[in-house]
Specification:
By secondary structure, the protein is of the alpha/beta class. It has three domains: about 180 residues, Rossmann fold (3-Layer(aba) Sandwich), CATH 3.40.50.300; about 170 residues, Up-down Bundle (Zinc Finger, Delta Prime, domain 3); about 200 residues, no CATH class. The chain contains 27 helices and twelve strands. Strands 2-3-4-1-5 form a five-stranded parallel β-sheet, covered by helices on one side. The chain has a three-stranded mixed β-sheet with strand order 9-10-11. Strand 2, helix 6 and strand 3 form a beta-alpha-beta unit. The longest helix is centred in the middle third of the chain and has 20 residues. It is extended, with a radius of gyration of 35 Å.
Amino acid sequence: MSEQSEYRVLARKYRPLRFADLIGQEPMVRTLSNAFASGRIAQAYMLTGVRGVGKTTTARILARALNYKTESVDEPNILLETEGEHCRAIIEGRHVDVIEMDAASHTGIDDIREIIESVQYAPALARYKVYIIDEVHMLSRSAFNGLLKTLEEPPAHLKFIFATTEIRKVPITVLSRCQRFDLRRIEAGEMVEHLKKITEAEKAEAEDEALGMIARASEGSVRDALSILDQAIAHADGKVMAEGIRSMLGLADRARVIDLFEHVMSGNIAAALSEMKSQYDIGADPYVVLTDLADFIHYVTRLKYAGSAEGAALAGNSAAFSEAERVRGSEFAEKLSVRVLGRAWQFLLKGLAEVRSSERALAAADMVLVRLTHAADLPSHEELVRMASEGGKPDAPQPAASGAPASAVSASSETRHAPVSAAPVNASVAFAPRNDVPGDMSGASEPVPRAGRAENAVPKPQPQPAVSDAGEPPLVLKGFEDLIFLAEDKRDIRVKLFLRRNVRLVSFKSGTLEFNLVGDPPREILQHAKERLETWTRLRWNFIISDKEGLPTIEEIEHAEKSSQIEKARSHPTVKAVLEAFEGARIVDVRIREKAEEGLAPADEDTAEDMPADGGNLDDFFE
């Protein structure tokens, strides 16, 4: 019983006593060392970071350094080579001049008033009276305000040390009066080395893979890592094994996660679902499995931007990854495109939220895998363009060879949308609450087409057959609008959006396009557009980027027209009455009734005849 009562958990037993014992916080230690050496000791310190990185421990070490006193040293000292006169009492939290307060349970102005009243008295034993306030962001507004004056002009014998996990909740007036230190998360490699030292000190056996799993699960928190290690030693009777860690924490086998990744990238839905069910049956949490899958995708993506020698450093600390993960991760990085990996990451981000909120986690995870594996079979963008231009079908996806995942290429969803057709023939004003769609319609990403009028309408060029005969005559375009209609007919959304958004026309003739380039189009779009036009028209095209001032882009013209219509509608008495009657309403669209073209008569012919062609007068519509 005596031995059990004296047992201390690892997080307390191996709590650092000196700055030299801290891991991963070298920038803070260097700054404090220089400050103490030059006598530039601040009046207040703010320590911030995630849970378990050592904020309270650092505060106690700092209080010890401020009050350090031995037979040979009687000044603030950062080294703390030997235990000083006040060190033991400060470390154990029982020194009369080092007062620790938890702001979570002392939030009010009355608690701060006690501090303010006591700071005028000199310390009883130590050099400085030190107040350590943990979770300082929990203080009320009045408590912060009451502390400000003392914090700005404290007595010479007073020091404040604050600790918080929510630095954004601390008023800027308080932050500006403190020297701030951001304690960073501990890297997985450093954490593994730290855990190795502790297992050796505890005379326990531990696999490197098991320690890597603990380091990942702790997410940079030393306290969490030591708590898991403490539990693992008890769970496995002194032998910390990877299988025991998986069972204890409900983790997935990382090697099997890689197998799941391979099934997903190959588009093998049945194998992916079977693998997920198999891992679930042995105790793995579906959310954890998908999280590990996302981590591996992130790892492979970062490896793609580094060679084998630099891969471990760029993709994270290699100590946290097994040899199988590093080898297979490099293989996937060579075979998969960034577009595939990015699309898989986006699917998983959305899917993780669904699994977390679902009462049936396995079913939700299965549906995420179905969507993810289905996306691997999508045709590439080039295949879609070829299908649209040649009237063929995209190549069927070939199954990946064993051990070689399919390198699927993302297809833009925009290419599957039907083009916007003719303009409306009736006039109407649409209203929506202001808090529904922020901003003005003129800033919308996809503007509504201009109302079609007979005198301004430009006929679309007739779709031409694919090039099959060198003797077939070229397609001659009469205007710039024909070029846009052609891209629309050929279902090439990239060329269409480029011509609408990024081209300010200077001059046009079939085969030559002179323009100003605006916006930030993709680097390869000019070459892509040129190649597409030459294929469609059977002409050699010359793109000239001119210094001359060009016309506004098609989208700019449409935005201006729509803004003008909205302003005219807003000044109409009937519209004003509607806006006043419905608080928060706003105009989102205006459409002008006109006589229908191509022999289609309007519902009210007299009203349509009275409507002005320029749409500037809305009175007839509202009468």
